[in-house]
Write a structure and sequence with these properties.
17% strand; 4-stranded antiparallel sheet; 7 strands; 3-stranded antiparallel sheet; 3 domains; disordered N terminus
Length: 205
């Protein structure tokens, strides 16, 4: 009888403690509700609590796993952002360099266009000068195609500075100056002088 009272005292003195729960857990069937009544221990509730603790541990593990994953992803994203920022900085520098090169190229093109316009103006000036020289052709001598004919007023030709032979050509319209090219001719001064001009402008009787 003393053993039972001692057991009751031991158990009741550990109500709510781990020792009582362990004791009741091991002797629950043998004590026939003693633990439930005296200690307040219920095996079914304890089992449910154990399952809840396991579930909580699992959830905590999952949360920690997700946290670690998110933290790793955040670090990777931060590294990617830093890399992209560096690339953006490099590309910005490259864009600035390209803009400078384009500006310099535009300047060179403008200079070349100005140079071309200057050359065109010089060419125009040269052409104008050549035209003026061409119009400044002068008479350097005369030629009597068949020599002096007695008692006749001989037709003569004008020898120009450019080598042309110019005569006065008269027809029904009046008359005009004409340049004689290579060919055979007859004077109209009454002497009927016949002469030839070759391709080099030389006169032959």
């Amino acid at each position: 009888m003393r053993v039972v009272f001692l057991l009751i005292a031991l158990v009741t003195s550990c109500v709510g403690c781990g020792v009582s729960n362990d004791f009741c857990d091991a002797n629950y069937e043998r004590l026939n509700g003693f633990c439930t009544t005296v200690v307040g221990y219920d095996a079914e509730v304890d089992e449910r609590l154990d399952k809840i603790e396991v579930r909580l541990d699992f959830i905590q593990t999952q949360i920690q796993h997700e946290y670690d994953g998110l933290n790793a992803a955040l670090e990777e994203t931060t590294a990617d952002i830093a890399t992209l920022w560096n690339l953006l900085t490099v590309e910005t520098d490259n864009i600035g360099l390209i803009q400078t090169q384009v500006f310099n190229l535009d300047q060179r093109v403008a200079q070349q266009l100005y140079y071309i316009e200057s050359l065109q103006q010089q060419l125009l000036d040269i052409q104008t000068a050549l035209s003026e020289i061409a119009y400044q052709t002068s008479v350097v001598g005369t030629v009597d195609f068949c020599g002096n004919a007695p008692n006749k007023v001989d037709e003569i030709g004008l020898i120009m500075s450019n080598g042309e032979i110019v005569v006065f050509f008269q027809n029904n319209d009046g008359g005009r100056l004409a340049s004689l090219g290579p060919g055979s001719y007859v004077t109209t001064d009454g002497t009927n002088c016949r002469f030839n001009i070759d391709a080099n402008g030389v006169i032959h009787d």
